[in-house]
């Protein structure tokens, strides 16, 4: 009887593992995780609606927002507990130390922050308005990264081009500072003594707006020398924006190509292994059940 109960418990735990852990499925997304994705998107929709004065001042909408937030916090708390519960099926997270290791993962911490602060306030009532905790709901966006491959590819591309991107960022920062110092001396110290260029920190705002080709027009040089230098900075800004974009585009393309090659290689190995087990060296066509003619 005890053995049977353990088998049932392990079977339920394994089914939960397949539902909760995306890596446990060969393809597609489970119904449970699809529900979590939909709930995350709905929570962002309600977050936007809660900031609308014509809605958040009406008692009916206030009650709807309150009920929905309680439901979302409860759902995410249950999800977190289940993920910790089934994590033990992975050999890396077995036992107490393994659970603690799982709970300190990046995704696990994001899952915890997605509901815990609001849950504590709801239960204890510390007097902290829930509106102050809305910003923490952005951690729910990380939940989507677990199920959307594009986020994983994006992160891998950033890691692949990390050194080049840091180099481009360093060059941009140096150019911003040099431009701010030059305009400070040209427009702030000399020339018209503009108040907007009266210090290097004030000039940095102009340098950033110009180098990123935004150019709001609220701050601009008026002397001929200042305008000439500003023209050079504006042209250099095109390269500052284009350089990291080109580096990242190349890394993104390389990452996609590497993943496609790995997928093709894995499929080729699986196909070769199946061919070796086929009698008379006949290889079944892809998509068939592998049957052969006599």
Shape: flat
Order of helices and strands: HHHHHHHHHHHH
The assembly state of the depicted protein chains is single chain
Measured distance between first and last alpha carbons:
49 Å
SS-based structural class? Answer: mainly alpha
Rounded mean pLDDT score: 78
Rg, please?
Answer: 28 Å
Quantity of strands, as a count: 0
Low-pLDDT stretches are 1-9, 278-294
Count every helix, treating DSSP H or I runs of 4 or more residues as helices: 12
The helix fraction, in percent, is over 70%
| Integer count of domains | 2
Give the biggest sheet. Answer: none
Give the strand content: under 5%
Q: How would you describe this structure to a colleague?
A:
- The protein has 294 residues and is mostly helical.
- The chain folds into two domains: 2-147; 162-281, Helix Hairpins (Orthogonal Bundle).
- It has helices at residues 2-20, 31-50, 53-56, 59-86, 95-103, 106-113, 116-124, 140-147, 149-160, 162-189, 200-211, 224-276.
- The longest helix is centred in the last third of the chain and has 53 residues, at 224-276.
- The model is unreliable at 1-9 and 278-294 (pLDDT under 50).
């Amino acid at each position: 009887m005890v053995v049977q109960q353990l088998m049932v418990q392990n079977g339920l735990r394994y089914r939960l593992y397949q539902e909760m852990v995306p890596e446990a499925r060969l393809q597609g997304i489970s119904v449970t995780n699809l529900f979590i994705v939909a709930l995350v998107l709905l929570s962002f929709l309600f977050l936007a609606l809660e900031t609308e004065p014509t809605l958040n001042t009406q008692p009916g909408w206030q009650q709807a927002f309150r009920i929905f937030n309680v439901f979302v916090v409860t759902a995410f708390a249950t999800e977190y507990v289940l993920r910790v519960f089934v994590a033990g099926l992975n050999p890396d997270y077995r036992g107490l130390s393994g659970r603690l290791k799982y709970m300190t993962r990046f995704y696990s911490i994001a899952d915890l922050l997605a509901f815990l602060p609001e849950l504590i306030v709801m239960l204890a009532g510390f007097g902290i308005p829930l509106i102050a905790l809305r910003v923490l709901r952005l951690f729910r966006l990380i939940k989507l990264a677990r199920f959307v491959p594009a986020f994983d590819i994006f992160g891998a591309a950033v890691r692949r081009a990390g050194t080049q991107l840091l180099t481009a960022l360093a060059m941009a920062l140096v150019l911003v500072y040099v431009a701010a110092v030059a305009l400070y001396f040209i427009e702030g110290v000399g020339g018209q003594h503009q108040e907007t260029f009266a210090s290097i920190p004030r000039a940095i705002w102009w340098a950033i707006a110009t180098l990123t080709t935004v150019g709001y027009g609220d701050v601009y040089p008026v002397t001929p020398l200042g305008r000439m230098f500003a023209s050079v900075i504006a042209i250099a800004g095109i390269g500052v924006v284009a350089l990291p974009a080109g580096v990242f585009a190349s890394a993104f393309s390389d990452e996609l190509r590497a993943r496609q090659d790995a997928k093709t290689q894995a499929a080729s190995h699986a196909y070769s292994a199946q061919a070796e087990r086929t009698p008379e060296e006949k290889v079944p066509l892809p998509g068939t059940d592998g049957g052969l003619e006599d």
